[in-house]
Amino acid sequence: MIRVLVADDEPMIRAGVRAVLAADPGLDVVAEAGDGDEAVDLVRRHRPDVAVLDIRMPRVSGIEAAARIRADAPDTGVVMLTTFGEDDYILRALSGGAAGFLVKSGPPEELIAGVRAVAGGAAWLSPPVAARVVAHLTATGAAGAAGRRAGARERVAALTARERDVLSHLGAGLSNGQIARRLHVVEGTVKAHVSSILARLGVDNRAAAAVVAHEAGVIPTPGPAGP
Fold first, then answer.
1. What pTM does this model have?
2. Which of 58, 120, 136, 184 has the greatest number of beta carbons closer than 10 A?
């Protein structure tokens, strides 16, 4: 059973998220919060596997809450709920250690998939979010965009061939176990590769590495990820 905390300052949104998650018998919403400060407190008390946080909340934002949760409860994965037009907030949340980003207007099954992915140790970037993040990062004119893409490709080229394979699947949202099965290696090997990839790319977490993968254009053709 995956234990989940939901935080949003709008009661109807919280109720909707809870209802979607309740449709999966493997997910259990153990707590709800109306702001970031309450979310941090409830994470400390309940130690959920995943915290689903709205980016903008009163008193303490989802971004600040995510950073505090990652510091206080590193075993709790953080999924951010966002709306279009919040690109700056998404970039700040990436730096704060959030592992998943979903748009509120997305399909319900994507919320379930994102929570399950983050609970399993994977990064999850909703395709619209990934596209907007990359677009925002490259929105400095054609030369700037080309420079960022070239820079991402150069960073990825410095990885070993196996690390590039792992990064491409990481960017597609696969967990370590799924990557191991896809590449026919043991999960511990994938974990070691991921640690090396983060260090060599100079990023702090899997979601940030996924952004680099999207920028460099190394995401594989979508296909079944496996159990």
1. 0.68
2. 120
